[in-house]
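Researcher: Please translate sequence to structure tokens.
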Amino acid sequence: MSDPITISLQGAPQGKGRARAFVRGGHVGHYTPQKTRSYESMIFGAAVDAMGGRPPFDEPVQVTLRAIFPVPASWSERKRQKAIVGEIKPAKRPDLDNVVKTWTDAMNGVVFVDDAQIVWMSLEKRYGPAALVVCTVQPIGGAQ
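Model: Translation complete:
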């Protein structure tokens, strides 16, 4: 079994944007919004760096993802401290499942061969002193 990989990306967590449709020449096409493509590109680059030339995992993996949101500047110091210690949770957009989808799609072919290999996940949204996403992928072995 291989060592786990941890990828960190500074900045506010972003969710996967919905595919947009357009009509051109009587044909319907779809595209991913630019904001989503840019964020996935940043994740991809961080994943390539974290892998350090290692091949992608080709076995079942577990993913642990922590999305840390900035505390709103307008909040009082008391409320800010409650948020940082976890007493107040960021029950707001983006949805956690959309954040995870962005990350797993961006790591396809880099950290693991395919996101179908993910058999277990641990996810968290919380406030922190700085916006950040930390994702750890660990092979867990076992039959495929």
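Researcher: Any highlights?
Model: The chain is about 25% helix and 30% strand.
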